[in-house]
């Protein structure tokens, strides 16, 4: 009815009707050559077509065969043809009794609409499946590449920024690639075929319609350029805000203890407000340019209607021909608008993909896999030869400056030195978290760079100073990293690590959840679980970085005994500040200035008047560990325990302390106990710390 009303308004008089009704095929050929039609009928059909084809394109490999793409294009193009035929049949019905033709063409259109509806429904489901699959694969690929990066990468990039790339950036790419680029085929075909059709039909009318296309093109490129820049800025701002939120939530206990909640909220609000301002600026630019583009497109349609009406008045175009022309023009405009809308979003995706592909294309400094795999495993001989190293994030600070160490297999090496001297770095280099910049590290006589990193790490067990637990059960945490394991072995490892008793005391036992980062357990409990995890792995090389630092005195003694038994026949590297935990080590190396300045057993180093002896003296709070130790600086010491010169015993030291503090019962009792026990200097240090 609407089309008929349009025709009556634009047509002052009826044109001469054909002398007879033509067969369907002849009518088809006549209409296609005379009225020159294309495909679309309305904005709804164009959008439906775009949705259908985008789904079929993205799901091409899933369900839809290739010939469906041109079939869908043909299906929508045929709508214009039949609409023009219906208009002409209605227009000439009083002269040729074309009621049957109207009914026939209407039924054809109904079949096309029903087919379009069914295919749209089917393709929408497939599109959703394809889009979700694309998103999952992209996120998995990004995470895989993140985990393959060397540890130095994580020293300089914040976790919040990486999480933002994993979520927000991939979502932008998914939306553009799967939802928009997948629908470029049909709109592009509609634009090309539509232009050919309307040029062939009436080139004068087409030139008038296309006069506003340059305005649309300029707006499109301006919008795309602005969207790319602003999207990059927005993603950077969101990543900065996400990093701040992640840092705050990860350290919630510290934030709460210092009553900094409102301050952190204010910092986050400031950072998120930056993204808000960028988005607001982008909205104004996109809205303004889109409005101009839409106005230019609508003006094309108005010009086509006005000039087409003039042609009808001049008897140069039929009513049905103008309707078909308008449908082709509308379809071309809508299809072109669809392509235009893809462009700025595509530029947004370029801004997001730049950060993603920067990560995907990054080659880690330490190769992730590939290399030699010893068929019989390794013996555990470790040798550092003139190793030079600095952290990539701090190139001006030398950590190792010609460090050399030789550790035979099955022996225990203890590293001693001030904080920051490179003890933990020694362990990181064995794990190949980093590679040294000079010298070489040998495992069983072969350069560590030649081994397969993953296989090598599988031969090494690591217990760090800060135990790391995951948000899963205690048993799963102990089994973490072990390929084949039973509950009996888990329990055995827990017993050896002195963790079985407290685990059994929990309501759920080994199934008890540790919470995120092990927040539901104490520091000592987490440390013992981490030790059990390393014991269960049964590595050839065992690395202990302050592994017993969080244990109480009783647990430390039991765990130390278990570790002493397990270290037999295993190459061990122990980092410790408490000399009581390393006195039984086969080799103790003192690191200072990036080099090993002293090396030997505990007794050998104590006998020397060197760094190790002075380090132990400072640790115990007195300048002396054994008979014969001389005072370094007595002028600044007020405590008699720190100002004794010449030979002394533990009893004499505590008796001097008692004289300065008065009649202290605890100290006098300790003096009597030491006199009976003939305590060693190390026991004196423990007692001094307790008092």
From TrEMBL:
The chain crosses the membrane at residues 71-93, 105-129, 181-201, 207-226, 283-307, 319-343. The lineage of its organism: Eukaryota, Cryptophyceae, Pyrenomonadales, Geminigeraceae, Guillardia. Keywords: ATP-binding, Membrane, Nucleotide-binding, Transmembrane, Transmembrane helix, Transport. Residues 382-618 form the ABC transporter domain. Gene3D superfamilies: ABC transporter type 1, transmembrane domain, P-loop containing nucleotide triphosphate hydrolases. InterPro entries: AAA+_ATPase, ABC1_TM_dom, ABC1_TM_sf, ABC_transporter-like_ATP-bd, ABC_transporter-like_CS, P-loop_NTPase, Type_1_exporter. Belongs to the ABC transporter superfamily. ABCB family. Multidrug resistance exporter (TC 3.A.1.201) subfamily. It comes from Guillardia theta. PANTHER family: ATP-BINDING CASSETTE SUB-FAMILY B MEMBER 10, MITOCHONDRIAL, ATP-DEPENDENT PERMEASE MDL1, MITOCHONDRIAL. This is ABC transporter. It is found in: Membrane; Plastid, Chloroplast. Its main location: membrane. It is a multi-pass membrane protein. It comes from the Eukaryota. GO terms for biological process: oligopeptide export from mitochondrion. Residues 77-348 form the ABC transmembrane type-1 domain. GO terms for molecular function: ABC-type oligopeptide transporter activity; ATP binding; ATP hydrolysis activity. One of its GO terms (cellular component) is mitochondrial inner membrane. PROSITE patterns: ABC_TM1F, ABC_TRANSPORTER_1, ABC_TRANSPORTER_2.
